[in-house]
Amino acid sequence: MSYTPVNSDAANVAAYTIARLNATSPSSVAVTSDQATAIADSQLGAIGLQTENNITGFSPNSYSNTPLADVPGSSWTFTAPVAKKYIVHVDTLMFFTAGANPFGALRLVVNGDAGPTVTFHTVTLNLLLPIHTMHSALCVAGANTIKLQWSCNSATYTVNVNASTYANYIVSG
Predict the structure, then answer these.
(1) Where are the alpha helices (DSSP H) in the chain?
(2) Which domain holds residue 37?
(3) What is the dihedral angle through the alpha carbons of 36, 39, 44, 50, rounded to the nearest 10 degrees?
(4) Residues 6+ apart with CB under 8 A from 142
(5) Is position 62 within any domain?
(6) Cα 2 to chain centroid, rounded
């Protein structure tokens, strides 16, 4: 059974560590790649370095209300090695199917802590709009829930996601 690291950089650090050990010390004790990855994972976690990403695909959904609400299917659980503030980025695509010059709003929510709201707008319906936002949020050691919330500035607007759209989350800290 192989070791699955929490930190996405652990395997690269482990490979470097093995190469340095083999170059500078007698090989009387063999260290496996899994052992070295586990050691690197714990070292990176101890200093708090963490980078991770996830691409979450959407199912077709639309929203036409002004209060911010969860984007269906946008939730992702991130595992933090230590409790501290992390920077969460998201790149996503959305489009409007109704409204004259529609405006919408999007924000990241991490463990219930809402980030700043980003406004997006178009003059062309059915045009995919690239949106980026970020939020610095306190995460606990272990599981943390990240999701998106959306709204329209008028009930006459309709914002949408479909199978061609996604949320690309990147967490670093």
Answers:
(1) 10-24, 33-47
(2) 10-47
(3) 70
(4) 79, 80
(5) yes
(6) 25
Sequence letter at residue 105: A
Is residue 98 exposed (0-12), middle (13-18) or buried (19+ Cβ within 10 Å)?
Answer: middle
152 φ, ψ to 5°? -115, 150
Nearest to 81 by CA among 135, 109, 43: 43
Token duo for residue 37 = 């990855």
Count of domains observed in the chain: 2
The predicted-structure confidence for 60-114, as pLDDT tens digits, reads as follows: 999 999 999 999 999 999 988 778 899 999 999 999 999 999 999 999 999 999 9
Does residue 64 fall inside a structural domain?
yes
Q: For residue 64, give both structure tokens.
A: 């036409």
pTM for this predicted structure: 0.73
Place of tokens 């695509």: 93
